[in-house]
Amino acid sequence: MAMNKETAPPPNPHGRNNVRTPTHVFPGGRKTLALMLTTGLFVFLLSTYHPAALYHSPMATHISPQETKIGHQDKVCNLFNGTWVRDFTGPIYTNITCPTMPDSKNCAKYGKQMDYVNWKWMPHGCDMVRFEPQLFLNIVQGKTLAFAADSIGRNQMESLLCLLSQVETPTKVHSDTKDKFVTWKNYLYEGGKLIGCIYCSEDNIKSFDVITAIQRALRTALNNLTNCQERGLQLTLVRTATPAHFENGFWNTGGYCNRTEPVGKGEAMTRTVEWAIRNAQVEEANRAQKEISHKGRMNIEILDITEAMSTRPDAHPGIHWNNKWMRGYSDCSHWCLPGPIDMWNELLLSLLQKYRKDLQNHQ
């Protein structure tokens, strides 16, 4: 699906900008995790700190992103195809027990009813393993986990910090507020030549749709990652786009998200630009994996959350957030903490477990 100038809303200012956030380190000797957020794409990077890796990457093989062994179960199931079911176990953390929760995601503090946390993601054919913070820290011991993303990626990082802070208190080791900036680059160059632009209407310049621009950017990023192995890069996870749920308008025209429970797949927003982005991401990730499969370098996996999140219009901050610059506007793009975004990190842990097992089998 193409987003053209006539139908596209203006760029969303709800934090989807180029912002470097602090690096957090979890102390504790054997349990060290560095989290970094850079800009631009929905990508996770897992690498060793130095060439003397704890594990050496096996010969990369293309595994369907839809089929993953989960937890201690032997059977293979589709982690990304399922449904939300009632679950009153309660979240692993709260806005009281998470010391790093930002106000903008602290929906309960600003009056949102908390029933949206009483659901869990149930993949078809298997059960999801609850997030285990200590296990996650053990898996990434001695490695760097980086989030290269926009503010939705930061949203997931904030969720992960809350989950991990239940066993370790993170220490902020870097903060550079001068790096906070917003910039929009409309023009696309290839080989040093201007070939087009997005969100523009200039004579003699080809206007690209957003999907094409994102696909080209992701292809460039993955190509560079596969060709740059100095840092011992082992695994790249492409997290697919997550739908916003504005109803009766865009973010700047009175759109809101006041649903109180998940919707069925028939009501889900399945014909949105985010689905087109998701399809482009899957295409590029599969293309890159095929190209590197014979080189024995890093693996590329897909963290496909688009379907699951398309049915959760109830879990956005909406008007229940604290942003003095956006008073009166609803945030229907980001996700409350705690909330269904925590499921992304359960999926992340499952994929890391699978990857560690693959590494051990190839030793």
From TrEMBL:
One of its GO terms (molecular function) is xylan O-acetyltransferase activity. It comes from the Eukaryota. It is a single-pass type II membrane protein. Residues 1-24 are annotated as: Disordered. Residues 130-185, 186-350 form the Trichome birefringence-like C-terminal domain. It is found in: Golgi apparatus membrane. The keyword Repeat does not apply. The chain crosses the membrane at residues 33-52. Keywords: Golgi apparatus, Membrane, Signal-anchor, Transferase, Transmembrane, Transmembrane helix. It holds the Pfam family PC-Esterase. Residues 76-127 form the Trichome birefringence-like N-terminal domain. GO terms for cellular component: Golgi apparatus; Golgi membrane. PANTHER family: PROTEIN TRICHOME BIREFRINGENCE-LIKE 9-RELATED (PTHR32285), XYLOGLUCAN O-ACETYLTRANSFERASE 2 (PTHR32285:SF28). Belongs to the PC-esterase family. TBL subfamily. This is Uncharacterized protein. It comes from Setaria italica.
